[in-house]
Amino acid sequence: MILIDYSGISIAPVAMGHAHHGDENLIRHMILNSIRMYRKKFKEQYGEVVIVADAGGNWRKDVYPQYKGKRKTSRDESKIDWDEAFRIINMVLQELKDEFPYKVIHEWGCEADDAIAEIVHHTQKFGNYEEVMIVSADKDFRQLQIFDNVSQYSPMLKKVVKEEHPRTYLAEHILTGDTGDGVPNVLSDDDTFLVEGKRQNILSKKKKESLLEDPKALGEAVYRNYQRNQMMIDLVNPSTPEDVRKAIINSFVSQDPYKNKGKVLPYLIAKNCRNLIDVIQEFI
Fold this sequence. Notes:
35% of the residues are buried. The chain has 2 domains: 2-163 and 241-282, 5'-nuclease (Rossmann fold, 3-Layer(aba) Sandwich); 167-233, Orthogonal Bundle (DNA polymerase, domain 1). It has a 6-stranded mixed beta sheet with strand order 3-2-1-4-5-6, sandwiched between helices. It is of the alpha/beta class. It is built from 12 helices and 6 strands. The two termini are 14 Å apart. Helix 1 (6-15) packs antiparallel against helix 2 (24-46) and helix 6 (112-122) packs across helix 10 (242-254). It has helices spanning 6-15, 24-46, 59-63, 71-76, 82-99, 112-122, 166-176, 205-213, 220-233, 242-254, 264-270, 274-277, and strands at 2-5, 49-52, 103-105, 132-135, 150-154, 159-161.
């Protein structure tokens, strides 16, 4: 299957400045064309598209309120009309659910990362094995290459991303944290990225080597931060709540979207997607 990280293909046209009034059709066209392009590129080897999107009620914020804590501030300061952008992005996601022959995973309580990881784990179970291509620029998915059936294509780099040492990558990622998601390194406090002027403590090579050998090597406070980072970052041994994990798989196995094949042409006509009508077979 081709697991497409919806946020990646939908945020890109917005970041390019197309979220102004009247650009709804252009953003829709760019999202749909991205899906068409990746389906055409990978379908022969990996099978059908599955669209995976972030939903509300992220469980990570319940256990670590500082998670992505500066995202809203950054968007408030941005020149992009994010309210309009998300209106269009969510509208197109609903259209994909209703009008296209693809499974769409959008479960309350989790991010696309959680859903993609859970579906990958599902393919490891007896009778469910299949090759998986993850289409996303998110580096977190490198760790999932611990599974032999998983590959990743980065739309940003425009190439397949191969992680030779996924176990080591995950171990080091937990120690260094994820600045973009507001997760500091294991030597630093929870609020490091929220307090003005506060910086991360330096994680030296020597300390990193000690922690790679034993996460408790530098004491209980650092180990507590290690556990914090592991919960936020680890997709191989995920901390996603069990009910959320079950909801993801229930959604995945219960959907039968292929009956929507006949809806694609009328939809493209109604939305005036003339260029896409010419290549409709690449959608279905």
